Amino acid sequence: MSTLVHGYKSRRLLASAVGLALVCAGAALAADAPKPRAAALQALVECRKVADPAQRLGCYDAAAGGLEAAEAAGDVVVVDRAQVQEAQRAAFGFNFRMPAFLTGGGAAGSDEAKRGVVLETLETTATEARQVNGKWYIVLADGAIWRQTDNEPVNSPAKAGSKITIKRAAMGSYFLSIDGQRSIRAKRDN
Q1: pLDDT tens readout for residues 99-144
Q2: Are strands 163-168 and 145-148 parallel, antiparallel or unpaired?
Q3: DSSP character for 98?
Q4: CB of 15 within 8 A of CB of 190?
Q5: How far apart are CA 130 and CA 54, in angstroms?
Q6: Which of 38, 53, 85, 135 could make an S-S bridge to 148, C-beta 3.0–4.6 Å?
Q7: Model-level pTM?
């Protein structure tokens, strides 16, 4: 059985759960007012205000220990820019507002953070491609499945190894190009 059919239901269920979690997180983080820092991080920042060097060092030691314990308990999650970009790539194609911590660099309250959008184009390769009832279904290298939504013909058929470029379009839609050809409209299925 092909990858396209075999893992479809489990991927769709997983994607739905991840999407729901991110939508809930996005709704909680969507307000325009900047959110306060995590208490463990704020305690570390506050140590800079301590004038006496010995007391400041003691403050930093205690605050660093508290931050480490909060991270170990899962109360604080520290991610770097590469992890943010990886999360954006994995979520590309799902139409929901990205939580501010996943917009990668947009200052709180900035247009970028408000929109929750940073990744506009995804370039990858196909691992599998099929036509079903005249519509293309393409499995990408990361396992995402994209389905053609318009009736535009594709001159050169997609196949494993085809270069795929997906661009965000208006009103939550996407354009997908196969090996640099004219784009077709597409939607992510998982």
Answers
A1: 666 665 554 445 554 444 467 899 999 999 999 998 999 999 999 9
A2: unpaired
A3: P
A4: yes
A5: 67
A6: 135
A7: 0.58
